[in-house]
Design a protein that fits this description.
The chain is an alpha/beta fold and 276 residues long. It has 2 domains: 55 residues, Vcp-like ATPase, Chain A, domain 2 (Roll); 181 residues, Vaccinia Virus protein VP39 (Rossmann fold, 3-Layer(aba) Sandwich), CATH 3.40.50.150. The protein is built from 6 helices and 15 strands.
Length: 276
């Protein structure tokens, strides 16, 4: 799912999903001199050169469908020590945050690298991504996940730093945050973004949502503030049984988006959103 051009045939180092006949998924990497263990085993090398979408029989007699994972497949199975941004939220953040090919994007708080992978794909080879993370274990996990599931990323810079002390960059096009206290980063974010740039962040609770929006509202650097959540309801379609599944992926976080204002001209009074 990374920046390399893929053909249909699997090769050494590929991340792949093994899907059993009940739809259960197992994420593995085809490394040299390893055996894939899932209720039986198969040598990783024996899968090199076969086409993805093939069925593979393990030593225990069970067959598995083998596919390279899409982004949505990968993230729930991504090796991690922290909660990841779910694909339903990452997709909305990419669109509302307007990540585009060739952009210069700053990311703060990377966890296991779920959003990092999405941003690297969005900026493309001619864009630039700079990620800030204060925890060494999170940084190491993200580096490993990017190397395994994306590949070489020469346009990605990872800085082990406290972003509340400020970003090194100025004139960035977009800035994405996944932090417990994003309101504390508004000063550094305003200094790092160009006029018209987009600020986007994710917070899990309503109290964090309010505190972040309140801080954006009182900041002279930001305007056009939006906040929302994304709900996802899968459906079961099996013969005549067409209905929502019993369990729904409901609230996982609030997305907040704002625009960086230019420091020129008069600042109008903000209208009361509840006024007629």
């Amino acid at each position: 799912m990374g920046n390399q051009v893929l053909d249909a045939k699997l090769k050494e180092g590929d991340g792949v999903l093994f899907v059993d006949r009940r739809g259960r998924r197992y994420l593995k990497v085809l490394r040299r001199n390893t055996r894939i263990l899932i209720r039986g085993e198969v040598a990783a090398e024996s899968l090199w050169g076969i086409e993805e979408g093939s069925w593979v029989r393990f030593s225990g007699g069970e067959t598995f469908l083998v596919l390279r994972p899409t982004y949505a497949d990968l993230i729930p199975h991504l090796p991690r020590r922290a909660q990841v941004i779910y694909p339903k939220d990452a997709g909305m953040m990419l669109l509302w945050g307007d990540a585009f090919p060739g952009a210069t994007i700053i990311e703060g708080g990377i966890g296991a690298g779920a959003l990092t992978l999405a941003l690297l794909r969005a900026v493309g080879p001619h864009g630039r991504l700079i990620s800030y993370e204060i925890r060494e274990d999170f940084a190491a996990a993200t580096q490993k996940n990017v190397a395994t599931f994306f590949g070489p990323a020469p346009n990605w810079t990872l800085k082990l730093r406290d972003l509340f002390e400020g970003f090194d960059e100025t004139g960035a096009d977009r800035l994405f945050l996944d932090l417990a206290e994003p309101w504390r980063a508004l000063g550094p974010a305003g200094n790092a973004l160009r006029a018209g740039g987009v600020f986007a962040c994710l917070v899990p609770t309503a109290l964090q949502l309010k505190q972040t929006v309140d801080a954006l509202e009182t900041s002279a650097s930001f305007g056009e503030i939006e906040c929302f959540e994304t709900l996802m309801r899968p459906w079961q379609v099996k013969g005549l049984s067409v209905r929502p599944v019993h369990r729904m992926v409901a609230h996982s976080g609030f997305i907040i988006v704002a625009r960086r204002l230019a420091h020129s001209g008069p600042t109008p009074l903000r209208a009361d959103a509840d006024a007629p």
